[in-house]
Write a structure and sequence with these properties.
Helix content is 45%, strand content 19%. By secondary structure, the chain is of the alpha+beta class. It has a five-stranded antiparallel β-sheet with strand order 3-2-1-4-5, sandwiched between helices. Helix 2 crosses helix 3, helix 4 packs across helix 6 and helix 8 packs across helix 9.
């Protein structure tokens, strides 16, 4: 069982990062919270806590900056009908602190806005995790996270933001055409929006 991977961040997208350790490049799936913490760190030493998902036909790694985020991810997957990709989708739509608050307060409406989560599944998450989620320590583990304001990109790289956002959304399972339209709409209204901000908004539109 791999607990963490530490090495040089050699490649980064909104959905996965590649960390080279001891000559091996590990492709690690990430949520938007981890992506925002990694922006600008390519070529630097990076450490991600890891959860392995091993099945007959796949061996995936999911990475997190904090133990609390990883614990919440694993906890989400204990709910019937919630797999690794759906758990990552939830953690891309909201921050870990927001997810804890949403579940603790029984806000099924907010959860059901995430792609693939209908009202019944949202209620199941709340019923199964409401008493457990408050035990996850997140408040002291927000280091490394950047605010959207701190990640604002100049408008001249608007096209780069669009390409990266659409690429991330298609990797998450959305149609490229629909993703492009959603991203265009967001960037028309907010031309200086970050990749993270665009993806978060698009996840609630698609």
């Amino acid at each position: 069982m791999i607990d963490y991977i530490k090495g040089e961040l050699t490649f980064l997208t909104p959905t996965y990062a590649v960390i080279e350790a001891a000559g091996v490049g590990y492709q690690i799936n990430i949520a938007l919270t981890s992506y925002s913490s990694l922006v600008g760190k390519e070529g630097q030493q990076t450490k991600l806590l890891v959860t392995e998902i091993i099945r007959e036909d796949t061996h995936d790694l999911f990475g997190f900056f904090t133990a609390g985020e990883r614990e919440l991810f694993v906890m989400l997957m204990t709910v019937s009908g919630i797999g690794a990709n759906t758990a990552r989708m939830i953690m891309s739509a909201y921050s870990a602190v927001e997810i804890r608050q949403i579940i603790a307060t029984g806000n099924a409406r907010a959860l059901s806005q995430v792609k693939g989560l209908g009202p019944k599944t949202a209620q199941r998450i709340i019923v199964d995790l409401k008493d457990k989620v408050l035990k996850v320590d997140l408040d002291s583990q927000e280091q490394g996270a950047k605010s959207e304001e701190g990640l604002l990109l100049p408008s001249e790289v608007n096209n780069e933001v669009k390409q990266e956002a659409v690429s991330a959304l298609t990797m998450l399972g959305f149609a490229a055409v629909a993703s492009g339209k959603a991203v265009d709409k967001i960037l028309t209204a907010q031309p200086d929006a970050t990749v993270e901000a665009v993806i978060k908004q698009a996840l609630k539109m698609l």
